[in-house]
Specification:
mainly alpha; about 60% helix
Length: about 110
């Protein structure tokens, strides 16, 4: 019973962590919209809706002040740039949490 309880707790923590991580990534389009002088809440909501509808290339078009198919605008970012930025940010957060003894060091 203790093993099942521990596994259930770990699954919940893992799910919550993944959800929080995904939610934290929304700051990127929010900040882009805000810096472009757009309504960040409206833009992020519309972007999320477009992605839900299957428009995977929908993105914030700063010049047109709306959501468009960003590949048609020839706006591309190398995958390595995104991977490096997310990895560095994640490692930084983990280091801070380790210092504060929030994350167990194994």
């Amino acid at each position: 019973e203790a093993v099942v309880s521990t596994l259930s707790t770990e699954a919940v923590v893992s799910t919550q962590s993944t959800g929080a991580f995904a939610e934290s990534l929304e700051i990127v389009p929010f900040t882009l919209a805000e810096n472009a002088g757009l309504s960040p809440i409206n833009i992020v909501t519309e972007l999320r809706n477009r992605h839900t509808l299957g428009e995977v290339f929908a993105g914030i078009n700063v010049k047109k002040s709306c959501i468009t198919n960003i590949t048609e605008e020839n706006v591309l970012q190398p995958l390595l740039v995104s991977i490096s930025a997310i990895t560095l940010a994640s490692e930084t957060v983990r280091a801070i949490l380790k210092i504060d003894d929030i994350v167990n060091t194994r």
